Amino acid sequence: MPQQKSKQIIGLFGFGVVGEGLYHVLENSHTTDATIKKICIKDPEKERILPHESFTTNQDELLDDKEINLIVELISDAEQAFDIVSQALKKGKSVVSGNKKMLAAHLPELIELQEKTGAALLYDASACGSIPVIRNLEEYYDNDLLLSITGILNGSSNFVLSKIFNDKKEYPESVKEAQQLGFAEADPSLDMGGWDSLYKVVILALHGFGTLVNPSDVFVSGIANLQADDIRFAREKGYRLKLVAQATKINGKNFNLMVMPKMVTEEEYIYNVENEYNGVIIEGAFYEKQFMFGKGAGGHPTGSSVLSDITARMHGYKYEYKKRKYFNIPEHTNDVTVKVYLRFKNLLDFSHFEFEEIEEKLSSKSFNYVIGTIKLSNLIHIRKLIQTLDVFLAFFDNPGK
Predict the structure, then answer these.
(1) pLDDT in tens, 227-238
(2) Domain 8-130+300-321's class?
(3) Is the pLDDT of residue 297 over 80?
(4) Catalytic residue ranges
(5) CB neighbours of 327 closer than 8 A, spacing ≥ 6?
(6) Per-residue pLDDT at 295
(7) 374-388 in b/e burial notation, b at 16+ Cβ within 10 A?
(8) For the domain 336-401, what is the CATH code?
(9) Coil, helix or strand for 162?
(10) Mind listing the pLDDT tens digit for each residue in 247-259?
C-alpha cells in the first residue's frame, strides 16, 4: 500500500444527517489534515449551521475545482450520486461515498472507472455505519476461507423490532419513534422492506467472495407485515425476530444471498443486538465465527466511518478487490432450500408457496401458519406477488443445497 500522505481538500455533496455528522466529527478530529472547501446542496433556502457562502447548488463548482482532491458524496438520490461519483472519478478525483443503493446498482462500472483513471472510490460508510466491515473483508479476510457473512445491517429496522419486543410497542408507533430520532426516513419502506440491507449485503458479497451480484437476483422480505400473532409466536417459542441479511457459501463454487426476518435463538450473537445497533458475524474455515458490533444509524457514527475513509485516502489507500484478482470467484445461486415460518390469512395466499416439506402447521379463524422447507428459487419467482399478500415470512437457519 502506498505510504504518501497529502492534505485532503474536500468537496462535500449533501449536508443532511450524515453530512452534518461528518462536519462535527471532522471539527473534533484535530490530527486529520482535511478541510471541507465547499458543500453542494439541493435546497439553498433551508436553514443550516454554516454560513451561506459555504454552500452551492452547482455541482460543477466542486467537480471542476482543481484544488479539491477528494469528493465526499452523501446524498440520498442514487442516480444523481452515480453521476457525481462517475464524473469525479473521470476527472481523476478520488471519492468517498455512503450511497449503498447507488453502489449496489453500479459496482461493475465503478470498478472499471477506478481501473481506467487510477482514482480511488472508498465506501466503508455504505455498510453497517460505524463498523469497518468492508475494510476487514478486504484486508484481514483476504483469503478464500470465508464461509458466511450474517448480520443485522440496518439500524432503523432493528430499532423498531427492539421497541416491539422489549417495550411491547405497536409497529406504527415504533416506526414513528425511529423517524423522530432520525433513524428512519419519512418513507420508511427502504429500511423496513429490507432494501437497505439488500444493497449492503450485495456490497459485502463483492468484498467477501469477489462476486458482482445484481440486486434484482436476491430474495428480499421485510418486516412491514409483522403482526401481533407473529410476535406472540416468536416469544412463546423463545425467539427474537431480527431482520437479517446473509451471504452463505454453499460449496466451493456457489454462494447464496438473501434478506429476511429471522427467528433468532438466544445462543446466536445477534440475539442481543438491540436498538439502532448493527451486528455482523463473519464465519470462516478454521477461524470459525467472529463478531463485530456497533451503531448502524445516526449522523455521528456514520460520519465517523466516512472520516475513516478520508484518512485512509490521506495515506493512499484504495480497494484492491483481492477476491476477484487472486481466487476462483464463486457463482451466486438461489438453488437452495430454506426453513421458513409463513403466517397467512387464507388458503389462496398459501397456495402460491410450493413447500418441499411441512414440519408444523396451525389453523384458526384469525391466525394460520406453517413451518417447513421451501426452495429460495420459488420465493424469488413470486417475490413481487408476496408484497401484495397478507403474509409474513421468517427463516430459521442457513440455507442448504
Answers:
(1) 999 999 999 999
(2) alpha beta
(3) no
(4) 200
(5) 143, 144, 210
(6) 84
(7) bbbebbbeeeeebee
(8) 3.30.70.240
(9) helix
(10) 999 987 899 999 9
